Amino acid sequence: MSPAPTTTRPSGVPATAAGLRATARILARTDAHGITRLPVLDGSGPFALRRTGFPGPQARVCMVGAMSAPLGGDRLAVEATAEAGASLHLTASAATVALPGRTGDAATYDVRLTVGDGARLDWLPEPLICAEGSDLWMTTTVELAPTARLVLREEQVLGRSGEHTGTLHSRLTVRRAGRTLLDQETAYGPGVPGWDTSAALGGHRALGQLLAVGPEFEDAEQRVRLLGGAAPERRDATGGQGVLAPLTGPAVLATAVAPDALRLRAVLDEAARSLPG
After folding, report:
1. Taking the mean position of all CA atoms in its chain, how far away is CA 87?
2. What is the pLDDT of residues 128-166, one digit of tens each?
3. pTM for this model (two decimals)
4. How far does Cα 19 stand from its chain's mean position?
5. Which of 9, 24, 110, 197 has the most CB within a 10 Å radius?
6. What does the protein in this record do (predicted)?
């Protein structure tokens, strides 16, 4: 399950008149009563942001797709900050589908997460689906304070049912207390050498990971664990498989591949159930 060979994202993708520019901004801040408030909840373009649940220690926000995006040429971004002591849970109502545009230009989707001391941020969107003919550059950048907590799930599906995949370049960078905790880059689809070989996806079309970071992992004993069909007691060539491993951080990272999104989620849920708390 090694990442496929990658290429470096251009320092600047040319702007086109056809592309959409949109940014969603979320700010979570705790008040004197320990309730997490949302003084900034601003979505535009395809981002419709909805508060869910009742006011309490954790604020919950669901991103609802207001239009089809990203299309080729679009420049989309999500900026979410949980200030010191706040707790923010972010989900989405449906999968994000990357589609080809009229010009053949690549689209970009940048996620920037910031978590303060004693704060928690759960980033749990639905899968990203790369439709045939699409070209997407996606970056996720996370800045964590020393006592911050993060739960991040990332799921990518290469092609809709019965179609070939588009091209996906993805980079995830996580820094804790100013030091790099995780920095990885992957690429899949047409034009990427070896992405579908046994050294990379081996015929699978769904891939994902679950990252958990927090002080509780400082002293917790974590061992490498096989997940799904990779586990010796659960050999199943048709199911998903993965591995859960500790990082020097403190953090743990589950990485999985599967034939489809449903079986990928089952493997990542298995990893989540094994985490402390």
Report:
1. 18
2. 999 999 999 999 999 999 999 999 999 999 999 889 999
3. 0.89
4. 23
5. 24
6. Required for maturation of urease via the functional incorporation of the urease nickel metallocenter.
